[in-house]
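Researcher: We're teaching a course module on how sequence relates to structure. For the next exercise, students receive a sequence and then see the predicted structure as tokens, so they can try to spot secondary structure elements on their own. Here is the exercise chain.
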Amino acid sequence: MTRDAGSGVHEPRDLAALATTVAGEAAALVRTYAEGRVEVAATKSSEVDVVTAADRAAEELLRARLRAARPDDAILGEEGEDEAGTSGVRWVLDPIDGTVNFLYGLPRHAVSVAAQVEGADGWRTVAGTVLEVPTGSTWSAHLDEGHPVGTRDGTPVRVRDPQPLHLMLVATGFSYDRDVRTRQAASLQHLLPRVRDVRRMGSCALDLCLLASGHLDAYVEEGVNLWDHAAATLVARAAGARWQLLTGASGRDLLVCAPAGAFEEFLEAVTAAGYTADGPTAG
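Model: And here is the predicted structure for the students to work with:
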């Protein structure tokens, strides 16, 4: 439980419930857009980094619902302007994580909603929901007396038992920047022979949730943003995973995640493959 002078008590369980409610409404809206012709509305960092009308509409809905329920909270979203708040709570929104999948009609895309509380060390995620839009499958987590608890469709999540590196099924993603992709491909070339296999499914949030549910053994990606992982890393922690943000070889945030018992071995392999700024140069 956390407290601030403006709005009283913030229960992480209640914040998680609100996150799930608004994520469900946004997902329903995204599905209506999927019934028609999905087209690119704009591009961001490059011509392959796209935004659809559904992204914008879903974020507008999320913001409206959260402002109505908690008008004093701050909001940070992928598609809109940051909104300041006075309550000490901030919502971090990704209206469609996996927009390119959505554009192509591929099922791996999700709404992600996280609630953070401001403290002496900055913002800390205390609740979050990741909702896979096509299936409705919902991962939710919140802090309970300081410890994360998480579920998938109401059932507690748990990572797979730690695997040795050569038996790890690893998820990853690639940047929209061509030069960063080139570095990532070189690092992947070094990592791939050392693991069971690699999957690239197009949604950071869902990859982390699948790891939490025992469908993957590890995850690594450079170029992630806070809205991609704010909710999902809490789910992963609740399931027994460990995660860390490092500086990647191209200077962007590098997210590494694995079951706690396998994390150090995987991090060593990631570093040896050249993913990190201070690791070997892959080539």
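Model: If you want an answer key for the exercise: The longest helix spans residues 12-34. Helices lie at 12-34, 53-69, 99-104, 178-191, 204-212, 226-238, 263-272.
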